[in-house]
Amino acid sequence: MATPEVAIGPSTVAAAEDQRIFVASQWQLMWWRFHKHRVAVASGIVVAGFYLVVLGADFLAYADPNASEAQRSLMPPQPVHWFDGGRFRPHVYAVKGARDPETFKRVYRADPTMKIPIRLFAQGFEYRFLGVIPMTRHLIGVDGGLDAEKTIFLLGTDVQGRDMWSRLMYGTRISLTIGLCGVTLSLFLGVVLGGFSGFYGGIADTVIQRVIEILRSIPTIPLWMGLAAALPRDWSILQIYFAITVIISLLGWTELARVVRGRFLALREEDFVVSARLVGCTQMRTIFVHMVPSFMSHIIAATTLALPAMIISETALSFLGLGLRPPAISWGVLLQQAQNVQTVAITPWLMIPAVPVIIVVMAFNFLGDGLRDAADPYGR
Amino acid sequence: MLAYIGRRALLAVFTVWAISALAFAIIQLPPGDYVTSYIAQMASMGSVVSDEEAQNLRIQYGLGQPIYVQYLKWMELVVQGDFGFSMEWRRPVTEVIGDRLWLTVVVSVAALLLTWVLALPIGIYSAVRQYSVGDYVATFIGFIGLAVPNFLLALVILYLGFTLFNAHIGGLFTPELQDAPWSQAKVWDLFKHLPIPALILGLAGTAQQIRIMRANLLDELRKPYVVTARSKGLSEARVILKYPVRLALNPFASTIGYTLPYIVSGSIIVSIVLGLPTVGPLLLKALIAQDMFLAGTIVLLLGVMTVIGTLISDILLVWVDPRIRLEDT
Fold first, then answer.
1. Does chain B have fewer CB atoms within 10 Å around its N or its C terminus?
2. Does position B163 have pLDDT exceeding 60, yes or no?
3. Are residues B153 and B12 in the same domain?
4. Assign residue B290 a region: left if phi > 0, alpha if psi is -120 to 50, beta otherwise?
5. Which of B148, B290, B299 has its CB closest to that of A358?
6. Number of residue pairs across A and B with CB atoms under 8 Å?
7. Which class for B25: exposed (0-12), middle (13-18), buried (19 or more C-beta within 10 A)?
8. How many whole angstroms separate alpha carbon B91 and alpha carbon B95?
9. What is the rounded distance in angstroms from the CA atom of residue A376 to the CA atom of residue B1?
10. Sorting pLDDT into bands at 50, 70 and 90, what band is B154?
11. Rounded to whole angstroms, what are the CA distances from A143 to A15, A134, A138, A151, B36?
12. How many domains does chain B have?
């Protein structure tokens, strides 16, 4: 595009500013627009933080998520004491468990005389960082990690005496990747079917639109429950994981298909698409080189908004015991233990996995909103 | 108008058919059938089911025939109002479901009504007093409502009720009235228990409706006819309620189609958490026990119920909005 020469002088600073906008690429415009939306930027950082947890779950965990011990069942979270004698030395008190002679419940008493210092980059169980590098260091930990006396449970333990913090880290990994896989699959379905529907129109469009309407008017949770209950009991964690992903996305692609179809319909008659067709571009080229880039941003925004629904679906199914099953760890699986009010009233820390669910869903919603606004840089 | 309603009705019929097929397919998916799980159940209790007995059970329930025959058999009975036999409860499905379906309807409709009752005034307020403290509070609660999955909300409310008031909030009836026959006292009891489940179920929808109402009303408020009305000296309440609100009200009716399936869906899982005597907990149990007729019937009835609700909302929309009425004539 040939831009007319603009004389740069002190009187034309505003014009130079305009110039910058005229020649900016679409992505640049979007970035500027997005940048202004403070909440969305903050949410983006939160989401990025959560995905860092996904990558480094084993580094952030300090205990083997499946190491259980009856001796420390349902231990409450140990409060961290940051200072020791005026100096910054984070530590927790050692906890002694005993059985209450009257109620036969395990009670735990902190022992202030025995301080367990918290160490950075402490030695712990073996793992492979990012799945490759063998490591034994963890972000935090205590000396003599496996000693039953000297342990730390930041968020307490569950019924089987497993550390909630470490389990939460691993749960984040599964819950967030299942959302990502699910959304990828629905994106594929949505783009193919929505694109087909919007680009060709006619009978295909009518049929696909009716199918979408039917799917949307069906209450999804009973259907999900039915499909998930149908999964064979003897499947491996990985098989169940993918099956759940497929189930969730089979019903979740409709919204994305709507967005894609809407964009195709809007663009089909645009001048640049018509001219692309007239100069003899193949259909594939017209679609992927000329049309898709111009609504890519809308797809990204719609995808971001579809992710929280996926995460909630998985959590809900696993919570009911129909989704992922132990030994797999996800937020829903962790929350399964919090189903019973009586249990929760005595051991409220079992409800903690609800917190990341809520934060992540909110962050994705804000981020998606910001992206959606930014995707339309000329809007408003 | 009739053409429009006719089209919607036709789609509804298709949807019901799709739901019935899906429901039946789901039930058929698990490996093994009721008899296998029955044998496993008996084995865990220490008794053995002979092959002959198993064979007889299979014949009795028609389990050996091809799937489409089983489906047609099922549909034939369904049309006659006979939903088959619950194999786990050893009673007819209709008897097992009993009042539960109607209670599901009551809870869902209550949630829907509450959504409107809350969203309408709050939405209007948020738009008219844009950027006021009240608007920010409504927006904030709205975001919470959208972000917190309703079963977690149910859990938190149960927990708070239990720890703060030492009261069990769940259920739809006081225990004494749970199994009592229907009476005025029982209806009143139900009415008293409804608000909490309705609020939990309706919160997400309310949040959404507030945002829609606010956005639409803001658009309308900027239009010249509002200025005209005001300059003619109409009272502020009249200016707002008589014209822009009426226009902004439209999505209220048109979104029932999406809100209702969502609420019905949510009612299942919230009922399980709150222990409501709706079809939710029954469905979960039936699915785990592979009680196919019971699970299938529940999925089917829930689907049909939603479709009918959506159809009603479509007709309402035509009635409310003359633009749609005129489109087809």
1. C
2. yes
3. no
4. left
5. B148
6. 127
7. middle
8. 7
9. 36
10. confident
11. 64, 20, 12, 9, 52
12. 2
Surface-to-core class of residue A11, CB atoms within 10 Å of its CB (0-12 exposed, 13-18 middle, 19+ buried):
exposed
**Distance from the B138 Cα atom to the nearest Cα atom in chain A, whole angstroms:** 16
| Among chain A residues, CA nearest to B308 | A217
Burial B288-312 (b: 16+ CB within 10 A, else e): bbbbbbbbbbbbbbbbbbbbebbbe
Percent of chain A past pLDDT 70, that is, above it, reads 92
B295 in A contact zone (CB under 8 Å): yes
In a domain, B284, yes or no: no
For position A2, what pLDDT does the model report? 47
Question: If you average pLDDT over each of A102-111, B187-196, B288-297, which comes out highest?
Answer: B187-196
Domain span holding position B309: 1-98+290-329
Three-state DSSP state, A364:
helix
Place of tokens 């039946």: B24
* B113 lies in the same domain as B230: yes
- Quick: pLDDT tens for A2-38: 445 555 555 555 666 677 777 777 777 778 878 887 8
ipTM of the complex: 0.78
Residue B281 lies in a domain: no
User: Which structure tokens are listed for A241?
Assistant: 């994981």
Find residues 188-217 of chain B whose CB sits inside 8 Å of chain A: none
pLDDT in tens, B178-205: 777 777 788 888 888 888 888 888 888 8
Classify residue B26: in a domain, yes or no. Answer: yes
- CATH at B115: 1.10.3720
Distances (CA, A) of A366 to A44, A315, B61, B185, B213: 8, 20, 52, 46, 19
Cα end-to-end distance, chain B, whole Å: 6
Q: B279: nearest CA in chain A?
A: A222
The verdict on B55 and B157 lying in the same domain is no
Reduced to 3 states, what is the DSSP secondary structure of residue B62?
coil
Structural domain includes residue B221:
yes
Nearest to B298 among A216, A222, A322 (CB): A222
Final residue before a domain boundary, out of B232, B249, B276: B276
Are B82 and B147 spatial neighbours (Cβ–Cβ below 8 Å)?
A: no
Give the bridge partners for A120, in sequence order. Answer: A140
